[in-house]
Design the sequence.
């Protein structure tokens, strides 16, 4: 079952938590752990401690040992009740997933014994992330526990590193860089693409071992494969830009949300119908971010590249796609606020957002309920849902088409998990790579799909009911994703990533100053801004040092 | 007590106050070397934890180094690039602009608040705490609240509205973003305020009494007693203010990311971005040394200037 | 100021009372009003910390969240090993306050009251350490502690404190310069050593300043984000200021929890400042020595 849109996650958890409690109660009453061994097994740390030093023969015995303490502990009712006090979120996930896992453990165990007398020394892995709270932190915790269950000799430590947030985050990557230089970097790192050829493990052989090919992932060529053709990352999650509409406002204005084939001009007309200055309702949220249906998506659909790494020229104003026109595309964005008045300009955005929490972050304006339509990034679905908190329903639909090139405006990107090359010397590369791909395995992928901290990057998960029932309209998501992939991904050309220019940051600051800070804020001519960006951008790219 | 008599008191700090016999001088010199014992911990720390890193930073400013790969020597090219980089110029200008308003502004406000909090008012410990707490409140949380206060329809513009003023769009305006950060900095005067408060306790009561005998009113006492007696603290606050304002980074990073149109790109923020986001460590180091030279010059100028107006009581011959 | 009114009393006894009262009321208004203006942002943090997440996005905004969502604090508390973080913070803070204060006072005395040869040149070194931006010295310092195998321990946060802190040395030196020289000259004539002068003469006179730097030390170390961030790694080893930033990530920020964390951080500072004030006030009694 998926989460129906009127049922909050918290409520789900509470119910599931209740189930956990009653399950524990049943176990305690039955007092003969046969039927309900799940919860109790987790309490037993014997698995890890025993395996550590004993050879195979004892592992055989260890499987027996595992059942013995179950009985012993079940009779101790106190421990069972303690179990209940564990934060509810985690108990739920355990209860849900357990049955599958137990089977896995058993088969693995048999394999080990039958196969070879291979002695598995205990392995410790570190996985760095900046996901420090809520469902994000719970996801990593779940991953660590599950991986340990499947591979009992591996313990995974999650290394949470706070950052300053924003596009110029200085904490996270700086600290990891220090660690890597000193040779003590964690085995796995989310979102770090820094001197990839020096520090990241080639994942090709590991991918083969896991029975995966690059084609199983979305947008693999742009971000995960380095300039020299080596695969140095595993997708963490993917990001597809789509559109969403506030269904309460749709009803109130009696408009029809287009399904698939509609032009940018139609979007503008629709937005105009939903604009009501009296009640301060806007038709369309034109984000000043470059992504999330900002102008970057428009540029992408025009086939424009931000800059050309070969010639070191800024090329935002040049469309490579036949019929494309990125300057006009940007001007369209500009007009939404300054001529049509269907999108709030930056002042109006800030004026509408009257709460301190609203001041930054994507889709916060949509969450106020005052915006008819907005961009929707699938990887932020969970966050949007929490912020809306059931105050209204929303509907996800396809992006509009460019009047110039006829392509839809997608913003696609993947962020990645990279494996530290040092893992080879430490002798845990196999386990580390295994953990990276475990993220996309049968246990993690449904979990990710359900809780939505990221959308899983493996293609076959995208038909998952968890995703398609996430909000109204998400059922056509697999089709949308397939088309988005055909358009290709875009990010690598303009921020730090596999193919970015060494001076990307100087260039990025410049482009943001021109387009986001001035043209979209102050209403200065978009044409002139684009011209300036081309000239100054090229200069910035060519600057030495 | 006129200001002319004050400057007469400020003689060179290093000059011994009275001539001594040769034997006494020698004994004094030996005794003075005892000072090494006192500063010893600092010397050790300086050599171990500061000098090494400074030399390291100086060396890498001549290198092209992205931390991960072996560096290459490029001579003065980092410095050349820094001098031609328009963003270095802009960020230095921004920093100077901030300093020019932040330092005097926050010194005056801290002084006034300290004076206010030195009065006899019931529950004073509570009020003092309330003035102090905002300046030590977590940077992220505070920055987010201030973004909201500066919103076009936020609290600040609401207040301006009472006086019929239509407030600007603070943080998204290239003109007003910097004034916004300066205004916000006035909520962080807590440490200067505490220093002043401690200093005010040391102003001898008899001076006020003397001023009163001369028929001086409230302002005369402030002008001729409080301010002269507080000059060491004012000096301290100015020095710390200048050093501090050259090192602003958190607010700008969290609230504007240096924008809009680089209007709040502070020099240290640029160094951080270059070093820790673009990983151009050599370049970041070279800008750091330029910044160091500027602050150092500014501090020396302040120290030289201080001889003319700062009054140290211990110079008075016994 | 009360002395002023006393002076006027002699001349204008009739209007005295009215004048005195107006002045007093005005003073209270300014002090109390100002303190509310100063606390305004903090009140809003408190308000945000007590609001339900989805209610943060409601327009018009909910100024007073009723009923307050205390659950935010529970969630904030349970997000990580908060007790361990508090314990680590307390270790760092208590050690730092003592070490920094003691060393800085001693070093400042050396710079202010002794006359060894290289004194003023070395003091430039103190100033320099305050001025050179930490952004570039971060890596070498980190590498030093890494070489010493101290990453992910509290040592890199404790050891540097033993050597004094330039900022506090500077403050104390400036303060010592304001103390009358004749006091230690007199002690010197009595044959006292520098250490005795420091202990018996200078420190008792410097209680307000020492309290000041102790408070600064407490606040700065309790709030310190950057150093623990780079030196500590594992979740259970972090300090509170770093752990409570877990609510900020590149993908989004949980504002209500972040603000709840910020409020938790404020509480000890309110107590510390409240208590330390007694020491500032103690200074009043001591000034009598000079008169």
Sequence:
């Amino acid at each position: 079952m998926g989460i129906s849109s009127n049922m909050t996650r918290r409520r789900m958890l509470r119910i599931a938590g209740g189930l956990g409690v009653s399950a524990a109660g049943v176990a305690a009453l039955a007092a003969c752990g046969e039927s309900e061994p799940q919860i109790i097994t987790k309490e037993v740390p014997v698995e890890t401690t025993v395996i550590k030093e004993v050879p195979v023969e004892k592992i055989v015995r260890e499987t027996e040992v595992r059942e013995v303490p179950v009985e012993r502990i079940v009779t101790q009712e106190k421990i069972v009740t303690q179990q209940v006090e564990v934060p509810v979120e985690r108990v739920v996930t355990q209860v849900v997933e357990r049955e599958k896992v137990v089977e896995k453990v058993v088969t693995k165990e048999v394999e080990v014994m039958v196969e070879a007398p291979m002695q598995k020394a205990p392995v410790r892995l570190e996985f760095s992330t900046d996901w420090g709270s809520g469902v994000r932190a719970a996801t990593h915790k779940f991953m660590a526990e599950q991986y340990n269950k499947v591979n009992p000799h591996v313990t995974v430590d999650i290394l949470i590193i706070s950052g300053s947030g924003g596009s110029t985050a200085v904490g996270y990557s700086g600290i990891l860089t220090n660690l890597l230089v000193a040779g003590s970097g964690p085995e796995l790192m989310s979102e770090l693409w820094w001197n990839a050829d020096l520090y990241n493990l080639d994942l090709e052989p590991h991918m083969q071992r896991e029975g995966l090919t690059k084609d199983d992932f979305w947008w693999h060529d742009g971000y995960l494969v380095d300039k020299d053709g080596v695969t140095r990352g595993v997708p963490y999650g993917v990001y597809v830009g789509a559109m969403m509409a506030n269904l309460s406002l749709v009803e109130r204005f009696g408009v029809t949300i287009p399904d698939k084939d509609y032009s940018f001009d139609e979007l503008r007309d629709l937005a105009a119908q939903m604009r009501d200055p009296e009640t301060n309702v806007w038709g369309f949220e034109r984000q000043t971010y470059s992504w999330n249906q900002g102008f970057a998506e428009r540029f992408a659909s025009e086939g424009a590249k931000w800059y050309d790494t070969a010639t070191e020229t800024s090329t935002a104003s040049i469309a490579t796609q036949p019929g494309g026109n990125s300057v006009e595309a940007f001007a369209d964005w500009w007009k939404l606020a300054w001529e049509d008045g269907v999108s709030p300009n930056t002042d109006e955005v800030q004026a509408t957002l009257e709460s301190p929490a609203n001041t930054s972050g994507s889709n916060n304006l949509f969450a106020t309920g005052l915006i008819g339509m907005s961009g929707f990034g699938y990887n932020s679905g969970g966050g949007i849902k929490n912020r809306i908190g059931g105050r209204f329903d929303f509907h996800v639909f396809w992006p509009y088409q460019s009047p110039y090139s006829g392509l839809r405006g997608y913003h696609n990107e993947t962020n990645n998990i990279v494996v530290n090359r040092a893992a080879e010397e430490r002798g845990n590369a196999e386990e580390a790579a295994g953990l990276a791909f475990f993220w996309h395995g049968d246990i993690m992928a449904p979990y990710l799909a359900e809780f939505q901290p990221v959308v899983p990057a493996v293609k076959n998960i995208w038909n998952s009911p968890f995703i398609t029932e996430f909000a109204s309209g998400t059922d056509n998501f697999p089709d949308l994703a397939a088309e988005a992939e055909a358009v290709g991904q875009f990010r690598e050309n303009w921020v730090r990533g596999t193919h970015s220019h060494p001076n990307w940051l100087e260039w990025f600051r410049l482009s943001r100053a021109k387009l986001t800070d001035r043209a979209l804020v102050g209403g200065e001519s978009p044409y002139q801004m684009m011209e300036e960006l081309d000239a100054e951008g090229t200069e910035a790219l060519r600057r030495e040092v | 007590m006129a200001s002319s008599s004050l400057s007469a008191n400020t003689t060179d700090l290093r000059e011994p106050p009275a001539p001594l016999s040769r034997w006494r001088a020698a004994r004094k010199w030996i005794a003075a070397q005892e000072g090494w014992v006192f500063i010893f911990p600092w010397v050790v720390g300086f050599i171990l934890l500061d000098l090494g890193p400074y030399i390291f930073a100086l060396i890498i400013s001549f290198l092209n180094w992205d931390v991960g790969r072996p560096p290459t020597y490029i001579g003065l090219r980092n410095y050349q690039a820094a001098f031609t980089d328009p963003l270095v110029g802009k960020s230095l200008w921004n920093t100077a602009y901030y300093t020019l308003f932040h330092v005097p502004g926050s010194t005056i406000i801290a002084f006034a608040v300290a004076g206010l909090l030195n009065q006899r008012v019931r529950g004073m410990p509570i009020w003092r705490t309330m003035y102090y707490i905002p300046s030590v409140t977590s940077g992220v949380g505070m920055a987010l609240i201030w973004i909201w206060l500066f919103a076009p329809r936020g609290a600040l513009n609401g207040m301006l509205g009472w006086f019929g003023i239509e407030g600007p769009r603070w943080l998204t305006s290239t003109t007003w973003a910097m004034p916004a950060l300066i205004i916000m900095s006035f909520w962080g005067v807590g440490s200067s305020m505490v220093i002043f408060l401690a200093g005010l306790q040391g102003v001898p009561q008899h001076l006020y009494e003397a001023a009163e005998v001369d028929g001086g009113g409230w302002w005369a006492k402030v002008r001729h007693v409080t301010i002269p007696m507080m000059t060491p603290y004012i000096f301290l606050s100015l020095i710390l203010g200048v050093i501090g304002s050259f090192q602003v980074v958190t607010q700008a990073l969290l609230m504007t990311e240096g924008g809009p149109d680089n209007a709040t790109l502070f020099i240290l923020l640029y160094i951080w971005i270059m070093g820790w986001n673009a990983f151009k460590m050599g370049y970041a180091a070279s800008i750091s040394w330029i910044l160091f030279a500027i602050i150092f010059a500014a501090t020396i100028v302040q120290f030289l200037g201080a001889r003319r107006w700062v009054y140290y009581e211990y110079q008075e011959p016994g | 100021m009360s002395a002023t009114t006393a002076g006027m009393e002699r001349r204008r006894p009739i209007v005295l009372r009215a004048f005195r009262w107006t002045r007093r009321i005005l003073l209270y208004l300014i002090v109390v009003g100002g303190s509310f203006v100063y606390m305004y942002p903090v009140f809003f943090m408190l308000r945000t910390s007590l609001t339900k997440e989805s209610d943060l996005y409601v327009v018009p905004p909910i100024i007073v969240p009723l009923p307050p969502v205390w659950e935010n604090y529970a969630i904030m508390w349970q997000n990580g090993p908060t007790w361990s973080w508090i314990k680590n913070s307390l270790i760092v803070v208590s050690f730092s306050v003592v070490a920094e204060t003691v060393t800085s006072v001693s070093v400042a005395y050396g710079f202010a009251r002794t006359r060894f040869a290289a004194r003023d040149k070395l003091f430039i070194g103190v100033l320099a350490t305050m001025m050179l931006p930490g952004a570039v010295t971060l890596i070498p310092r980190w590498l030093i502690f890494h070489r010493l195998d101290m990453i992910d321990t509290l040592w890199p946060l404790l050891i540097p404190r033993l050597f004094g802190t330039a900022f506090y040395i500077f403050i104390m030196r400036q303060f010592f310069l304001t103390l009358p020289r004749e006091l230690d000259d007199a002690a010197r004539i009595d044959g006292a050593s520098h250490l005795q002068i420091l202990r018996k003469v200078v420190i008792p006179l410097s209680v307000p300043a020492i309290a000041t730097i102790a408070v600064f030390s407490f606040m700065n170390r309790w709030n310190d984000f950057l150093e623990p961030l780079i030196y500590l790694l594992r979740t259970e080893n972090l300090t509170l200021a770093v752990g409570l930033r877990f609510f900020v990530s590149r993908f989004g920020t949980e504002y209500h929890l972040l603000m709840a964390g910020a409020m938790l951080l404020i509480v000890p500072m309110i107590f510390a400042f409240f208590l330390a004030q007694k020491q500032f006030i103690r200074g009043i009694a001591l000034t009598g020595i000079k008169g």
